[in-house]
Amino acid sequence: MPIALQAGLWGLLSGSALVIGAVIGWFVPLGRRVIAAIMAFGAGVLISALSFELIDEAWKQGGFLPVAGGFLGGALVYTGANWLLAHRGARHRKRSVPEKREKQAANNPENGAALALGALLDGIPESIVIGVSLLAGKGIGLVAVIAVFLSNIPEGLSSAAGMKHEGKKAGHVFGMWALIALASGIAATIGYLAFDGVPPAGVASVMAVAAGAILAMIVDTMVPEAFEGTHDFAGLIAVSGFLAAFALSRLA
Questions:
Q1: By C-alpha distance, which of 62, 16, 55, 29 is closest to 185?
Q2: pLDDT tens digits, 183-219
Q3: Range of the domain at 84
C-alpha cells in the first residue's frame, strides 16, 4: 500500500474519534463534570504527545532555531485564525455549557460554517503530524495517532452535546463531524506528500509549527471547558492524561 494512502487512513482513523465522540455526546446523557473531565484528560494526552513526540523529535532533527521559530509561528497562525472565527460564532465550539452556546448562537445565529471551520482548524495540525511522522520510514507514530484519537473523542462529545442544546439536527451534527474526519485523512495525506524529500530542518520546523498550533488550541479551547466543569480537579485529571500518554510512548 502506498505510504501516502497509509497516512490518509491513519488520519481518517484518528479523525473518526470525532464521530464516535459526537455519537456519545448526542445519545448518552453525560453530566457536565464528566464531559469536562474527559476534556481535561484529552488535553493532558495531547500536551504529552506534543512534548515528546513532536518537540523532542523536531529538536533532534533540526536543532533549536527551527523548533523555536516553528513553535511560535504555529501558535501565532492558530491564534490569529481562531480569533477571526471566534468573532464569527465559533468561540465556544468545544463547550457543552448551554448558556454559553446559547449566547454564542444568539450573537451569531448563522454560525454553522464558523463552527465547522473552527473544528477543521483544530484538527488540521494534528492530522499533518500523522502524515509527517511517516517521512522517516520507520512506520507510523502510534503514540501520536493514539493521542490524537483520544483527544478527538472529548472534542466531538462536548461539541455535539452543546449543538444538541442549541437545537441543531442530528444529521447536521453527524454530517459535519464525518466531513471533518474525512478532511483529517486528507490532511494527513497532504502532510506526507507535501514534505516528502524536505531536509530534516524543514521537517523539524513543520513538526514544531504543528506543536505550537496544538498547544495554543489546547489552552484556548479545551482548558476552559475542562476547568469550568471540574474546577480544582482539572489539573490532576490533565496530569493523569499526560502520564498515560508518556507511559505509552516509553512502552512503545
A1: 16
A2: 999 998 988 888 887 888 888 888 899 899 999 989 9
A3: 3-251
